[in-house]
Amino acid sequence: EDLSARDVAFDTSLPVGVMIEVPSVGFAVDELSAEVDFFSVGTNDLSQYFFAAARDAAGVSGLADVRRPAFLRLLKQIVADVRARGKWAGMCGEMAGDARLLPLTLGLGLDEISAAAAAVPSLKEKISKLSAGACEELLARAAACRTVEEVEALLARAESRGDDQPLLDPKLIILGGGAESKAEAIRELIDELHVSGRTGDRDRLEEAVWAREATYSTGLGHGFAVPHCKTDAVAADTLAVLRLGRAVEWGALDGEPVRVVILMAMRESGDAAARHLRVFARLARRLMDEEFRGRVSGAEDVQELFDYLSAELGTEA
């Protein structure tokens, strides 16, 4: 109004937004949506006012912890209200730039997060390895906790076990692979893990797979092979499936060439040893069943095979 009154030209399409830095604004999204184009949550100020714990007051500043379940519930409500009104939602503040809290931040369903320039590359790398759906589920579990310690335990388990990514993903199923040897088949699967963000160190992952192969052949017979390893070269426990256009020699137990390769790469940290054994044992048992082998070998498309394996492997996948 001031610029118009002084006949100063300005861009009338310039988007105008509001920072949500006090709880009262968080509960006024409905009214404010009629006036603004976007909202940005400022977690530093919002947390200190929400907890009545000033950041410069040493005796109480520690109470303003963004990991507290009550604060996570507030964030969920704010973003849901913004979304319900068709507005853009962002976040700035220390929470937005904290890589360990990314699963919680992404679980909110924000359009954008703001962080220091130096942190952007590492944040982008971690985001590329996270599943939005899994982050949303993790946030829901965290918001239902009672203490910061419980939330921290959830984050630690997700970090160590890769809970932010499912064991099996349609993107990790390749039908009609062109590999013409055992080595090419293993490399094709590892390349797919790299493309999908499951590994940033293909060579280290491949070394782990071949170390297992050097002990005994993973060709289990009937045209199936299950190369497997435990290594933190993968960001999350992973099953990847490659169905070859032409069977390749694998040194299988029954002497038959292999056409279906199921790579199982599990992280070393956390309870990986126990999960590795559970998944491998279940998969090996299913491969003894002729119907299972037939369904895997004959699935017409990726989604059909993904749905079938998810159902057959149960909660493991």
Summarize the structure in words.
- The chain has helices at 2-5, 23-26, 29-33, 43-50, 69-84, 102-107, 120-128, 132-143, 148-161, 182-195, 202-215, 272-287, 290-298, 302-313; strands spanning 17-20, 38-42, 88-92, 112-113, 168-177, 219-221, 224-225, 228-230, 238-248, 258-266.
- By secondary structure, the protein is α/β, with parallel strands linked by helices.
- Strands 5, 6, 7, 8, 9 and 10 form a 6-stranded mixed sheet that branches. It has a 4-stranded parallel sheet with strand order 1-2-3-4.
- A hairpin with a 2-residue loop joins β6 and β7.
- The longest helix is centred in the first third of the chain and has 16 residues, at 69-84.
- It is elongated, with a radius of gyration of 25 Å.
List keywords for this structure.
14 helices, alpha/beta, 10 strands, 317 residues, 6-stranded mixed β-sheet
Gyration radius (Cα, Å) is 25 Å
C-alpha end-to-end distance = 59 Å
Poorly predicted runs of 5 or more residues: none
Mean pLDDT: 89
Number of strands: 10
> Which percent band covers the strand fraction?
15-25%
Main beta-sheet annotation: 6 strands, mixed
